[in-house]
Design a protein that fits this description.
single chain, alpha+beta, Arp2/3 complex 21 kDa subunit ARPC3, Beta-Lactamase, 4 domains, 20 helices, 58% helix, rod-shaped
Length: 592
């Protein structure tokens, strides 16, 4: 895609381009061919280059043919005569074609002044390669017609064409692209009045400089030029250069102005003036282009900040902006509502102060990872201290912030409280490990505790397990119904809970089977605890209406040492349980 192809040349614009090319060519060959050779000033090619730079390549042939025809007429009437005019006109129009082709191939922005790369490419294409290439052909044609020398004509061609293209192409492109028209249409009248007053200031300064020949005051127009550039922008800078060019050229041709202090011919003095104007253009217009770019960036930043504040001030998350050291630069107002911190008082404080001490290293590590990998988002969950001393759980998503060069400037963290989620997860976990009928642990929790105990490094003898089976429980269900059977199971769970420590685990592991994991308790003491449970169960009574229901329990006990296979331990406890049943039930047996 060619960046410079912005508009399509309509008939009116094509005619204007041809007329502008003809006028510029006619004035140059009629007024600046000092000595009968090449023109010392050549602005016409800037007209064609500006038009080529703002249209599609498919529409170039019509513009080229139109400008070539205008060049033939101008050269035929005031230049080398009708015989040589077709050839010299062809050399002239070839120059902007070469420059436009190179600018499009190198993907240079149409103004060529908005960045060092574009500026250098524009100068190389329009100010060096194109005029130096066509200058050979032009110098030969002019020498064959006028006999004024190839070398002299080549030098004047190169200097005049290069300075003309560099000086006036950016200005003409603003006109050809419709930029001036758009600026005029959208600018308020107060700004228009300001622009006109500044142009008058430029004109007065230019007249003061070029209307006298006693002092070299060419530096003086820099002040009004910079002023109008900063206040009005590219369009103002271009209009000021046009005004200064017209005043400078007219007064210099009348023999006054600082340029006439140079002891040389009028042609050389005009080329020096054109060099001065070119330097002015290359000084002022890049500044104007940069100001325009900065204004766009500022507008984008302002819009982005407005969107950011709208989101953060109405978000249920907390947004923190941190520097590379973790110091808070911004805290969203939501932190006051959700947590209770004053966002203004947090500015300048370390973000780690909001994190509980045990979790600070992990949070710092995630911050460092985000800074080292700016294209990734990192998440960490931590405990935070809120006003009043409460501790809550939070989750933060952190991503680095970079500037336009990719350098890391800090990080942004989106923080969300997760206390309710963690509580819900804990409740779900507890529900998944709890028997819904009795309220004690289920088989999954029992197996997990058994596995953890078997690998515990605390001691060589880790503890014991006991398996409880309610004797003749099927008979209870058959005689009194399942509701009474359920109550018997709940009664056993209540009784067993009262006899064990908080660190021991009671679980229902089957229909009428229960298990207890005893941590760090020797077998003889476990046997005594199981006996107390057995005796309490035997003494307990569950009422089925007017009927008392009595149950007993058989128990099998096995020791659990470090490294034991939990399945083998369960098998030994089951064998001890079967022994209790075989010996008459309602008793405890210790596996050998």
């Amino acid at each position: 895609m060619r960046i410079g192809c912005l508009t399509s040349p309509g008939p009116i614009r094509s005619v204007l381009t041809g007329c502008g090319y003809f006028a510029a060519s006619a004035l140059a060959v009629a007024l600046t061919r000092f000595g009968g050779g090449a023109a010392f000033i050549w602005v016409a090619n800037a007209v064609l280059l500006a038009s080529l730079g703002t249209c599609r390549p498919a529409q170039w042939p019509g513009l080229i043919l139109l400008c070539w025809s205008a060049g033939v007429v101008a050269a035929g009437m005031w230049g080398l005569g009708w015989t040589a005019s077709p050839f010299i006109a062809a050399a002239n129009v070839l120059e902007p074609v070469i420059a436009a082709g190179l600018i499009g191939r190198w993907r240079i922005h149409r103004t060529g002044l908005d960045s060092p790369r574009n500026l250098s490419g524009f100068l190389l294409a329009a100010g060096l390669i194109a005029p130096s290439t066509t200058g050979v052909l032009g110098a030969v044609i002019i020498d064959q017609t006028s006999g004024t020398g190839v070398g002299t004509n080549y030098f004047h061609w190169l200097v005049g064409h290069a300075l003309g293209a560099v000086t006036f192409t950016p200005i003409f492109e603003q006109i050809a692209s419709g930029e001036v028209q758009r600026w005029w249409g959208k600018t308020q009248w107060r700004n228009l009045v300001e622009a006109i007053l500044l142009l008058i200031f430029v004109a007065i300064t230019a007249i003061s400089v070029f209307a006298q020949t006693s002092l070299p005051l060419l530096f003086l127009p820099a002040l009004p030029l910079m002023l109008i550039t900063f206040r009005v922008g590219k369009i103002g800078a271009s209009m000021a250069i046009v005004v200064m060019t017209a005043i400078g050229v007219i007064l210099t041709l009348h023999g006054v102005g600082p340029v006439n202090m140079i002891h040389s011919g009028l042609g050389e003095r005009l080329q020096f003036l054109q060099l001065y104007l070119a330097v002015t253009v290359l000084t002022v217009l890049p500044v104007a282009a940069d100001l325009t770019r900065r204004k766009k960036l500022f507008d984008q930043l302002r819009d982005s900040e407005a969107r950011f504040r709208l989101i953060t001030e109405n978000s249920t998350d907390i947004v923190l902006s941190l520097d590379v050291d973790g110091v808070i630069r911004y805290a969203s107002p939501s932190i006051r509502l959700l947590v209770g911190h004053d966002p203004d008082k947090l500015i300048g404080k370390q973000s780690s102060a909001l994190v509980c001490e045990p979790d600070r290293d992990e949070v710092r590590a995630v911050h460092i990872k985000a800074l080292r990998s700016p294209d990734q988002t990192f998440t960490v969950e931590f405990r935070g201290v809120v006003p009043g001393g409460d501790v809550r759980w939070f989750e933060t998503h952190t991503r680095a912030v970079t500037d336009e060069r990719g350098a890391v400037q800090g990080a942004v963290s989106a923080v969300r409280e997760t206390s309710r989620r963690r509580q819900h997860e804990a409740e779900l976990t507890e529900a998944a490990l709890t028997d819904p009928l009795t309220g004690v642990c289920n088989r999954r929790a029992f197996d997990r505790a058994l596995s953890e105990l078997s690998v515990s490094p605390e001691s060589e003898s880790t503890g014991c397990i006991a398996i409880f089976d309610l004797d003749h429980f099927k008979r209870v269900n058959d005689m009194f119904g399942h509701a009474i059977g359920d109550e018997v199971l709940r009664a056993f769970a209540r009784t067993a809970r009262l006899q064990i420590r908080d660190g021991d685990l009671l679980a229902r592991i089957g229909g009428e089977e229960f298990g207890i994991v005893f941590r760090q308790v020797p077998p003889d003491r476990v046997y005594l605890v199981c006996e107390r449970i057995r005796q309490a169960v035997a003494a307990d009574v569950v009422r089925a209406g007017d009927w008392p229901v009595h149950v007993t329990v058989s128990i099998g006990i096995a020791t659990l040492d470090v490294g034991d296979d939990p399945l083998d331990v369960l098998k030994r406890a089951d064998r001890a349980l079967y022994k209790s049943k075989e010996e008459g039930r309602n008793r405890s047996s210790l596996a050998g």
